[in-house]
Amino acid sequence: MHEELGLGKKGWRRMNHNPQSSEGRHDDDAALSDFLASLMDYTPTIPDELVEHYLAKSGFQCPDVRLTRLVAVATQKFVAEVAGDALQHCKARQATIPKDKRDKQQKDKRLVLTMEDLSKALREYGVNLRHQEYFADSPSTGMDPATRDE
Amino acid sequence: MTNGGGRAAPDDFGRAAARLAAAQLCQAAGFHGATASALDAFADVAIRYLLDLGRTAESYANLAGRSQCSVFDAIRAFEDLEAPRAFSGAGAGVREIANFVESADEVPFAQPIPQFPVIREGTNTKTNMNMNMNIPSFDQMGETPPSKHIPAWLPALPDPHTYIHTPVWDERVSDPREDKIEQARQRRKAERSLLSLQKRLLLRNGSVEAKATTSASSDSAAGLDPQVVGGDDKDVSPVVKVSDEGGGGGGGGGDGKRVSVLEAFGPAIEMLGGGGLCDEDEDGMGGRERTELPAARPTVHFKFRTGKKFIGESLDTKLRKKDVSRTAALAGREDERDDKKRRAEYILKQSMENPQELTLL
Q: From A65, which residue of chain B is nearest by alpha-carbon distance?
């Protein structure tokens, strides 16, 4: 199905310059329906009830469970990507800490999601997450991060 | 957690569930732990993303003139939100998702959560099933709305007795005059029964009880001179003793043991007439005394004092009869000195009379 989708999508894009044939579109639709069917096998981490509640809150009316699952999967993809980026930041920070090896070993074992990593990861997604710092360690604390020297 | 112990916000349940989902995804990504604030912020961002997706999809549907969203609306919304991520062109959104589905491990939600928000009875569910159990509508009550502008499917108005207070009047009429008449009647009745009791006791038991009840009855008898009360107290003890000795002589009339109470109550008893007496007169000789006072009357010795009233004065003309002359004064008040003197004389007299009575019996 994956390849089909790829072909379908590529075919559609190639035909973008030309009037697209109906076949590509049909493939596209077929692929989509197949994908939606396959969604029912996949259980997203975000439960259906939660998704339905917040979709209803925003006005999204849909009696179709597959669509709800699609939205749930999309959200899960977003969260997973952000988490992965935060993990990268966390690991990068640990690599740059000038400590002796034993401390680093200890810290390697413990990867903790902090506000700093999260805000860095979310900035690429256009989410501006500012966290009030508890300790003012340096004079540049609390300033706009864009002006800080990294 | 989210509130720090404050009041529960209505969205707390959703936030807690989103927090759990975010934590699970962080763990799946490789994190060993997370700070609480970071996790809260992450859950909040995830919720905002979800809301944004729904809102954008809905706007796309409305743009096309539809009220219900389709899959294409959702895909377009997804691509809209993914735009900052330097996408590779339109139409690849589903591919991204498909890639993700294929590659990522399935991380199910830790706990099953119920359908929320919980529908409380009284609201309409999404499927338009009316679960309104609290207040029935006008149609359900079988009533017509009071005005034309109120549709019949609205909840019925409350019954008038729940909000209109009508005054409650006490229908019982109290007549103060009637109350007073009733009170006087009851008092008279009590007096009459008391007097009849006196007479009964007098004639049945002789002078002992009569003497004993003198002060008591004088206390309670209404209409009598209250000054009698004090004076008779002193008379009781000596007279009682005397009467004991002479009591065996007979409950019958004719001896000189009549007591002052008879004189005191004489007019009252006569007023009662025969109706006030009881029937239980055990003394055979007392039968003829039911309706008449004893024939024998002692000689009443009066001492006139200023300022004091003697009951015996009024009875003087009626009751003065002679049988045994007595110097003891039985009516009115005496000084203590006189009491002792009188007592002594009386005892002496009784001792003389006793053998005479015995012979009579």
A: B71
